[in-house]
Write a structure and sequence with these properties.
Strand 14 and strand 15 form a beta hairpin. The protein is built from 12 helices and 19 strands. Helices cover about 35% and strands about 25% of the residues. It has a domain of about 220 residues: FAD/NAD(P)-binding domain (3-Layer(bba) Sandwich). The radius of gyration is 21 Å and the shape is globular. The structure holds flavin-adenine dinucleotide. Flavin-adenine dinucleotide (FAD) binds next to helix 1, strand 3, strand 17, helix 8 and helix 9.
Length: about 375
C-alpha cells in the first residue's frame, strides 16, 4: 500500500497520532487543521498506562519525549476527608507502564516533532467539504483526493453526521477551568494527584507536572462564563478559595491569563458506524469525533492514541484493502470503546447527580473497587 494518499482532518491528539502512524507505514499524508498554528493548550492532563503504551507504539516515550511525570497515587477526597485512593502503579502493573501527568502543549510538541517527512501540514485550513463518492476533502478553494480520510475533527465533528445518524454531542451541563503554574511559582505538592468532590456538584483537582510545574482543574455546573479572565479568577476564588489546603494556594498562584475555560461535551449514544467505504477507499472517524467521552475519568486522549495505533495495525494486516482494514479496525476497537464510554458516562451521571450523590457513592466504594476499575479501564495493549 505504498504511496497511497491519506487526508487527516484535524491536528488534535487523534489527528497527529494518525498522521505519525500513516507516515510510518509509507503513506503520503495531508494533515488539514483549521487553526493557524499547531499547538497544544496550557493545561495538564492524565495519560493512563494504556495511553502511555499507545505513545510508545508510536515511538514516543511519555516521560523522556513528552515530559510526563509518573503518578504514584490517586486520591479522591470530599471537602472534609479522604474517601478513596488507588495506586497508579497498579494500573500499569503488567508491563510497568506508568500513568503520567503531562502538560498538553508538551505532549503536543512531542507528537508534532514525530510527524514524518511525508506529512504535509496545512494549517489555517477549515475543511468544509467531504466528498464521500470520489473520496476527497476540501476547504473553500482547495481539494485533496485520498484513498483514506481520517476524520479527527473533534467532539463536534460534522463528518460524523455524514456517515451516521443518532450520535449527537451532549452538553454535560458543567464548565471546566484548568491552569498550569510554572515550577517556580507552584505550591508544594507530592507525587499524587488529588481530586476533591465538594458541595453543589463542584470538583477541584490538582497534580504535579514535574519540570512543567503543577496543574489544577475545576468543574462547576452551568455554561461557559462570559466574564474576563480577571473576573473568572475572582469567581473561582469565591467558589473554591476556602476549600481544604492547598486549593487556595493553587488559585492564588495562578495568573488570570493562565486560565483556560472549556465547555464539557461528549458523544452519546455512540455512533453505530465509524467508517464508510466506497470501492477500495474509505473514511474513518477517530478520537473525540468518534467517541468523545465525558472527561470525568480522563480517558479521551488515551483512546485517541489507541485509535491511531490500532488503525496502523489494521492497515498493516490488510495492505491491499482499505475497506478490509477499516472493518478490522472497527472490530478491534468497538468493544473497548463502548466499555470506556459507558463507564465515563456513568461516572459523569454520578459526578453531576444531585447534592451529595457523588460524595455518598464515593464514600461507599472500597479502595479495592476503585483500583480494579482503574486497572480495567487502562487494560489495553497495542494489537499485534
Ligand atoms: C475539561 C477536560 C479535561 C480533560 N482531561 C483529560 C485528561 O486528563 N486525560 C485525557 O486523556 N483526556 C482528557 N480530556 C479529553 C481530551 O482532551 C480529548 O479526548 C482529546 O483531546 C481528543 O483529541 P482529538 O484529537 O480527538 O480532538 P480535538 O483535540 O478536539 O482535536 C480536533 C482538531 O480538529 C480541528 N478541526 C475541527 N474541525 C475542523 C475542520 N472542519 N477543518 C480542519 N480542522 C478541524 C480542531 O481545530 C482541532 O485541532 C479532557 C477534556 C476536557 C474537556
Amino acid at each position: 500500500m505504498h504511496n497511497r494518499r491519506a487526508v487527516v482532518v484535524g491536528a488534535g491528539i487523534a489527528g497527529l497520532a494518525s498522521a505519525i502512524m500513516l507516515s510510518k507505514l509509507g503513506w503520503r499524508v495531508a494533515l488539514l487543521e483549521r487553526r493557524e498554528r499547531l499547538r497544544g493548550d496550557n493545561v495538564g492532563m492524565v495519560l493512563w498506562a494504556s495511553g502511555v503504551r499507545a505513545l510508545r507504539a508510536l515511538g514516543i516515550d511519555a516521560a523522556l519525549d513528552a515530559g510526563g511525570t509518573p503518578v504514584h497515587h490517586f486520591e479522591i477526597r470530599t471537602d472534609e476527608r479522604q474517601v478513596g485512593s488507588f495506586s497508579a502503579a497498579a494500573v500499569g502493573a503488567d508491563d510497568g507502564a506508568p500513568s503520567v501527568m503531562i502538560h498538553n502543549a508538551v505532549l503536543y510538541e512531542a507528537l508534532v516533532s514525530h510527524l514524518g517527512r511525508d506529512v504535509e501540514v496545512h494549517p489555517d485550513t477549515q475543511v468544509s467539504r467531504i466528498d464521500l463518492v470520489d473520496l476527497a476533502a476540501g476547504d473553500a478553494t482547495r481539494r485533496w483526493d485520498a484513498d483514506l480520510i481520517v476524520a479527527a475533527d473533534g467532539v463536534d465533528s460534522p463528518t460524523r453526521a455524514l456517515i451516521t445518524s443518532g450520535a449527537p454531542t451532549v452538553d454535560a451541563g458543567v464548565v471546566a477551568f484548568r491552569a498550569t503554574i510554572p515550577a517556580h511559582r507552584a505550591p508544594e505538592r507530592g507525587s499524587e494527584a488529588v481530586e476533591i468532590y465538594g458541595p453543589d456538584r463542584r470538583r477541584f483537582g490538582y497534580a504535579d507536572l514535574g519540570h512543567s510545574g503543577a496543574c489544577w482543574w475545576a468543574t462547576v455546573p452551568g455554561g461557559m462564563r462570559p466574564e474576563s479572565p480577571q473576573i473568572q479568577h475572582e469567581l473561582i476564588n469565591r467558589w473554591f478559595g476556602d476549600w481544604p489546603a492547598p486549593v487556595g494556594k493553587f488559585i492564588a498562584a495562578t495568573r488570570p491569563t493562565e486560565l483556560t475555560q472549556q465547555a464539557v461535551r461528549f458523544v452519546w449514544p455512540l455512533p453505530a458506524k465509524v467508517y464508510h467505504t466506497d470501492g477500495d477507499r474509505g473514511l474513518v472517524l477517530t478520537g473525540d469525533a468518534a467517541h468523545g467521552t465525558a472527561p470525568v475519568l480522563a480517558h479521551g486522549a488515551s483512546l485517541a492514541l489507541e485509535d491511531a495505533v490500532t488503525l496502523g495495525w489494521a492497515l498493516r494486516h490488510h495492505p491491499e484493502s482499505v475497506p478490509d482494514a477499516l472493518h478490522a479496525y472497527d472490530r478491534a476497537r468497538a468493544g473497548r470503546i463502548r466499555k470506556v464510554a459507558r463507564l465515563c458516562r456513568r461516572a459523569h451521571l454520578v459526578a453531576s447527580g444531585g447534592p451529595g450523590v457523588a460524595r455518598g457513592i464515593l464514600r461507599a466504594m472500597p479502595d479495592s473497587w476503585l483500583t480494579s476499575r482503574a486497572v480495567s479501564l487502562a487494560d489495553w495493549q497495542p494489537p499485534r
